[in-house]
Every structure is written in C-alpha cells, then in structure tokens.
Amino acid sequence: MTMVQARVASPPARRSVPGSIRVISGITVASLALLFAALAVGGVSARDGLRVIGRDAGPQVVATAGLYFALSDMDAQVADVLVLGRAYEQQRRAALARYDERRLEANRALLKAFELSGDNPAERRTAESLLDGLGRYERLAGQALLLNERSSHEPGPPPDEVVRTYRQATDLMRLVLLPQAYNLTLENGTIVRRTYDEKAVVVPLVRVAVVVAGLLALACLVWLQVFLARRFRRVFGPALLAATVATLVALVAGVAVLGQDQEALRRAKKAGFDSVLTVARARAISTSMQGDESRYLLDKERADTYEHTFLDKSLAVLYLEAGNLSTYHKAVAERSSKALGLLGPELAARDGQAVLETYRGFQAADTEFRRLVAEGRNADAVAARLGPVRQAFDAYDQALLVMSGRHENVFERAIDTGESSLDNLWRLLPFAIGGIALLMFAGVWPRLKEYR
C-alpha cells in the first residue's frame, strides 16, 4: 500500500516542476512586456513633444513672429518715404522696394500660418482677418504714397492730406493688424508651452517606469535561472544569460535615449525656441520703434504720442528705470548691464554685449535726431534719419540677427538630436524583443522537453 501511494503521489510532484517553469517564465515574459511597453510609451510621448515644438506649433510661432516684423517694417518704410519728400530719390526707391519685399514676406507668413492652423477655427479666423486687414492697409498706404508723390514737398512733414491718409493706415496697422499678429503668436505659443509642460512631467515619469520595469524583468530572469539551476543541478544556461544581458542593454539604452530626449526637449524649448521668439519680438518692436522716428517727424499733431510710443517700445526691449525719453537715453548711455525687458536675459550670452553696444549706438543717434527736430531743422533731421540713425539701427538689427541665428542653431540641433536618438531606439526595440524572445525559448524549452 505504501508503494502504491508513492506511485500515485509521484506524477503530481513531477508535473509541478514544468508548471513552476511555465509560471515563472510567464511572469518573466510579462515583466519584459511591461519594460518594452514603457519604452514604447516614453518614445511616443517624446516624439510627440519634439514634433509639436520642432515641426508644428514651434515653427508656426516663429512664422507669426516674422509676420509681426514684416508688418512693422512695412509701416516704417511708408513713414520713411513720406518724410523724404522730393529729395533723396535713391533712398526713396530703396524704401519702396523694401516695402514691397516686406509685403511679400507678410503675405507668405500669413499663408503659412493659415496652412499650419489646421482645423483650429480661431487661428483660421485670425489669419483671414489679417489677410483682409492687410489688403485695406495696402490701399490706404498706396493712397498716402500717391498723394505724397503729387505734393512734391521738401524733406520733412508732408501736406496735411497726406498725413490724414497715413494716419488711417498707421492706425489700422498699430491698433488692429499688429495686435492680431501678436495674438496669433500667443495662441501658438500657448500650444508649445502646454506641450512642453506636459512632456516635462510625462517623460521623466515614464523614464522611472522604464527603470522599475527593467529591474523587475532582470529580477525575474535571474529568478528563472536560479530555479532552473537548482532544480536541474546545472550551471546557468547560456541562452538565459544572453537574454539577461540583452535585457540589461535594452534597459540602459532606453533610459539613456529617454534622458537624451528629455534634455533635447529642454534645450529646444528653453535655449532655442524661447530665445528665438524673444529676439524675434525684440526685432519686430525695434523696427516699429525706429519707424516712430519718422512718424514723430511727419505728424506734428501726434509728435508727443509717437515720442511716448518710442519710449514704451524701448522699455519693452530693454527696461531701465526712466520717466521720460531723455532720462532713458541717459540711462542707456551709462552702460548699465542690469537691465530687464525682452533683451535683459539675453545679454548674458556671448553675443549679448554686441547687441547691447549697438543698441546704445542707436539710442545715441536717436538723441541727436530729436535735437535736430526740436530745433526745427527738418532737412537735417531727415539727413540724420537716413544717415547716422539708419546706420546705427542697421548695426543693431544685424547684431539681433546674429543672436537669433545662434539660438536657431541650438533649437534645430536639439530637435535633430532628440529625433535621431528616438530613431535609434525604434530600430533597437524590434531586434531586442525578437532576440530576447528567442533566447527565452532556447533557455526554457529544453528543460520542459525533459518532462515530456
């Protein structure tokens, strides 16, 4: 009876070994699936962030910032032409040519913004409104230029009918078109900021999940090998050892790629996109600001208004404590580096000093220009506007372009680096999944066969 009982009890004991192998193997496979699922989720999330910031909403924001600049410069060129009068034929033709160039840039930027708006009805309405308003502005500006051509006046303020027509054009530009262009930039900028804030939380969390899932998978693989080694009294199998090494490689590579993407997103947003947008806004405001000099000269009734707007824009670009324009000129000339405003944070960069020095040169030239206007020397003021003021502003604008180009390079490199690392991860995952699956099968199946 004892022998019969032993024989009956034996098969369940033998069947429990393959059952245990299947259970442990199943848990190991599940942990590996969790690891690769976490890697896939992290890769998709990072890819989405890079796409929005680097390919969709980010470029759209830069395009609409370029629109703001083109619109500002259009109005500045019209004001320049109106104060030139019948003199300075070459400069007048150059200003008209630049006006046409900026008009084309504005239309292209609007079309691009319209295309990139996709199914967003608010952005589409804003773009359509801008297109309609730009057409009305061009008609008013054309009328002012035609009346100015017929008047054939001396350099300085044009006749009243020219000024009245230009007022309608510049009011449409300053009060309607530029705010709409700025709102278009803000709308898309909100998408970029929201995407970055989301990915800045999600990607690190997924990266932690990858680490936890990877460690769990490694622990399960070690558990499986220890169980097999003890049960079959053999050394660790080479196939499962290789699977463990492959899992470790996949874990390290996945964590490294997600870390690179996290850093790429940060650099693209903070050191690239934010600075590119800041410099673009500063350049657009500065262009409108130097246009206020011509408006200050051509419209005597609004001279005080244009002087105040010049100061407001100057403070927006580089803020220094000042109650009026004269005080601001002195504060800029004192070479204080403790400034706020759009360019304040950018001055610490390696090309920030060049921007600051050229900005000081432009403000110094503006001081002399306003002195000539105050003395009633309109012809000399126009000459200064075309000579020292224009040269100083062009130097400042070129310094801004250099700074913007450097930030654009940082932005593009960060996006390219992030996307390249993700491409490598996607190429690795199929091989890792297939290879580890085969190694698991090769390590477990021979042990199961022993019980068949």
Describe this structure in words.
The protein is mostly helical. The protein has one domain (26-449). 87% of the residues lie in helices and 0% in strands. 41% of the residues are buried.
Attribute tags:
452 residues, mainly alpha, 0% strand, elongated
Integer tally of domains: 1
Strands, count: 0
Helix content: over 70%
Mean pLDDT: 87
Mass-distribution shape: elongated
Largest β-sheet summary: none
Indicate the multimeric state.
Answer: single chain
- Put simply, the count of helices is 10
Q: Gist?
A:
Helices cover 87% and strands 0% of the residues. It is built from 10 helices and no strands. The chain has helices spanning 2-54, 57-84, 89-116, 121-151, 160-232, 238-298, 303-317, 325-333, 352-374, 378-449.
SSE order and pairing:
Layout: H1 2-54, H2 57-84, H3 89-116, H4 121-151, H5 160-232, H6 238-298, H7 303-317, H8 325-333, H9 352-374, H10 378-449
